């Protein structure tokens, strides 16, 4: 632009979105009644996280950085809708739909796929036995689909133009099984063989790094996913009397979200 330097535009973009993400990370902590010193540690961990530095400074990838900074916003308003003191209403539903539509239209679809799977677990965990809440959320999903329908059509038609067996540096191809395989990272078959075999710690680390060096996508690591799933099942089935159900559910759901990065 002859009036504003492109470097300044991107600097303002990074700063604005990171401010939004940090602000809503603090609001998430406040909603979970986390002490302020711990909340500040959470904020610093988010701002200085590997994902933040990679998406902004290393890769200079605005579409992925936007999704990363919108994640605390989406979780905050989902939390308020599902377990907060805000009553379910048309205004809250439309707000959720607008936030998700904005993120989908401006974010990277490959990065968002994993995040929305985790948020889906978050929603089902809190609303599986609340049909009224589920009905509101289905209505919100319909609104989102209507707002992003052109983008979804474009992505679908573009994806169908590529051969399913085409080689890629982050996964084997473009078919569904290739996408599902990525969700098992970093525990690939070679890494599992090294763990169950007699490989030394140095050889195991070398295999782990070699198998995941080219992966630039977020992943739901199998260990974290199994741990969070077990904790969720324990809360649902055992219903321990000494645990604050609302806070425990929020903590487990946030574990699912954090396991993305």
In words, what does this structure look like?
The structure is a single chain. This protein is mostly helical and 261 residues long. It is built from 13 helices and no strands. The chain is globular. The mean pLDDT is 76.
In what range is the share of β-strand residues? Answer: under 5%
How many strands in all? Answer: 0
Cα radius of gyration in angstroms: 20 Å
- Rounded mean pLDDT is 76
Overall geometry comes to: globular
Question: How many H/I helices?
Answer: 13
Major beta sheet, specifics?
none
- Which regions are unreliable across 5 or more consecutive residues at pLDDT < 50? none
Determine the fraction of residues in helical runs and give it as a percent range: over 70%
- The termini sit apart by 35 Å
Summarize the structure.
The protein has 261 residues and is an all-alpha fold.
Topology at a glance:
Elements: H1 6-31, H2 36-47, H3 50-58, H4 62-83, H5 90-106, H6 109-127, H7 131-147, H8 149-160, H9 176-182, H10 189-196, H11 201-212, H12 222-238, H13 245-258
Helix pairs in contact: 1-2, 1-4, 3-4, 4-5, 4-6, 5-7, 6-13, 10-11, 12-13
Features:
0% strand; 13 helices
